[in-house]
Amino acid sequence: MNDALVVICLLLVAASATAAVAVRDPERQALVLAVLGLSLAVLFTVFQAPDVALSQLAVGSVLTPLLVLLSVRKVRRGAGPKTRRGTGPDRGGRDRTRPDAGPQPPGGRGGRDGATG
Amino acid sequence: MSRRLRMLLLALGGAGFAALFAAACLELPHFGAARHPYGERAVHAALARHTANVVSAVNFDQRAFDTLGEESILFAAVLGTVVLLRQTRGERQVRPEPVAVARPVRRYSLVMVPVALLTGLYVVAHGQLSPGGGFQGGVVVATALHLLYIGVDYQALERIRPVGGYEVGDAAGEAAYLVLGAAGLLGGSAFLANTLLPYGTFNTIPSGGTVPLLNAAIGMEVACAVVVLLARFLDQAVEIVDGSGE
Amino acid sequence: MSVLPYLAAGWMFLAGCYGLATSRHLVHAVGCLAVCQSSTYVLLLAVGYRTGGTAPVFSDVRPGSRPLVDPVVQALTLTDVVVGATVTALLLALVVQVAKRHGTVDPDELSELRG
Fold first, then answer.
1. Is B9 within a domain?
2. C51 and chain B in contact, CB less than 8 A
3. Which one of A70, B30, B203, C74 counts the least CB within 10 Å of its CB?
4. Cβ–Cβ of C105/A30 closer than 8 Å?
5. Is B223 part of the contact surface with chain C (CB cutoff 8 Å)?
6. Which of A52, A74, A79 sits opposite C81 (nearest CB)?
7. Cβ–Cβ pairs < 8 A, chains A and C
8. DSSP category for residue C55
9. What's the pLDDT tens digit per position in A18-40?
10. What is the ipTM of this complex?
11. Contact call for A71 and B244, based on CB within 8 A
12. How far apart are CA C78 and CA A57, in angstroms?
């Protein structure tokens, strides 16, 4: 019974790790990394390591994906500062800029909401 | 390096690693084997010092010096991030405008903030008894604060999160760990040796000698470190914009 | 069964390395590095596992009543998880800096810039 559980969790972890590498868009990768963190936490619980599972749950499925999302947002904005004004600084991680969306139409997301303090 | 050369190198290295690793796996003790000499000794040492959670005993007693190293890596990584992500010349800070949040979301997250904070503190405080400790609880406490960002807005988060204070807290956690180690030295034994305090009653909060104190120091450092890290990244993603774009 | 967890760890490591080498986006590369790192957790905990063992925590288990899994590797992994996250954060901060300085995060374009 326990052996079957271990095998299932291992396959789940290996599959999500492969998916995390295969997904090329970093935004989607952040979500797959969260899934990987979650499945690792389950695997560690099955391995009778609750301390590590807790730590993995907090770090792997929350902190790392969040940091990745925030850097993607910054990098996307920083890459084309003159053309990307439409994706202004409104609400942090809420703004899901599409990958390779190109210049956004002015007013698409509140236009110049970030231009004035 | 051309793409083809790189892939060739990767294939060679990968094949070499796979062959050696597979050979090593066959020689490793089988998965689930019953012989764990270090583990058994660690359990004995933890029980001798009345620490119910053996993992915490290993981290903060038997291998406390190693944890000091890990903690210093954490500290240095946060320091590096703070330096790298500071506001540079030619960048401006823009106040993000408040945005209306759906009422149920706001209510739920405001209820959850104290619950999550309390959970994190509980996990830190019971590190020497049950699964958990400073590393896990610290992350929970730090991320719990950010529920305010989801529930209210960025300015509310900034009000309860003076980054300077958390930077001081980060340094204080690191310093407290060092001071506790030096106290062991002054107490007549070795650096970070757990001989200073009475070991207490097994399975109560003040058990395990210096383990709960070191655990709390780590909890403080990790919580402050994660808050500072997220603050820097959030500032970059939300507030700081390239001034030349205007 | 007796070597499957080790092989899974090796697979994860190789997959992460492949992603690192072929990545076209530095943030994606950092994510692949995180995958490589996770493989070490799986390997360490697999070495410490014991069939029928329970977690090395005595808050509700009488000492000596049941076999335990190895607490030493768990302690190693535990610190590694948290410290690994902060190192990931440092790398991401470097990526943000690269994006600011060079306006691109494609490793191939970056090496063309230099050469």
1. no
2. yes
3. B30
4. no
5. no
6. A52
7. 140
8. -
9. 999 999 999 999 999 999 999 99
10. 0.90
11. no
12. 11
How far is the C-alpha of C88 from the C-alpha of A23, rounded, in Å?
A: 19
**Chain A closest-CA separation from residue C104 CA (Å):** 6
Instruction: Please name the chains neighbouring C, where neighbouring means 3+ C-beta pairs under 8 angstroms.
Output: A, B
Residue at B7 is within a domain: no
pLDDT recorded at residue B243? 65
Q: What residues in C contact B45, CB-CB < 8 Å?
A: none
Domain definitions of chain A by residue range: 2-77
Question: How many whole angstroms separate alpha carbon B50 and alpha carbon B171?
Answer: 30
Least CB–CB distance from C35: residue in A21, A51, A68: A21
Tokens describing residue B71: 């903690």
> What pLDDT was estimated at residue A117?
31
Residue C114 neighbours by CB distance under 10 Å: 6
pTM of the model: 0.86
DSSP state of B242: E
pLDDT tens digits for range A51-110: 999 999 999 888 999 999 999 998 887 654 433 333 434 434 444 344 443 344 343 333
Tell me the residue range of the domain where C46 lies. Answer: 4-114
Comparing B122-126, B157-161, C3-7, the range with the smallest average pLDDT is B157-161
User: Furthest-apart CA pair in chain B: how many Å?
Assistant: 67
CA proximity to B203, closest of B64, B47, B81, B97: B47
pLDDT at B140: 93
Amino acid identity of C105?
A: V
User: Is B160 among the domain residues?
Assistant: yes
pLDDT one-digit tens code per residue, B134-154: 999 999 999 999 998 888 888
CATH of the domain at C108: 1.10.287.3510
Share of residues in chain B with pLDDT > 70 (%): 98
What's C68's DSSP letter?
A: B
Contacts of C99 in chain A (CB under 8 A): 74-75, 78-79
Structure confidence by residue, pLDDT tens digits, C61-107: 888 888 899 999 999 999 889 888 988 999 999 999 999 888 888 88
Chain C neighbors of A19, CB-CB under 8 A: none
* Calpha distance A46→B133 (Å, rounded): 20
Q: What is the pLDDT of residue A113?
A: 38
Q: Which domain holds residue B147?
A: 36-245
CA angle (B141 as vertex; B135, B144 as ends), nearest 5: 135
Count: domains in chain C = 1
Determine, yes or no, domain membership for B19: no
Structural domain count of chain B: 1
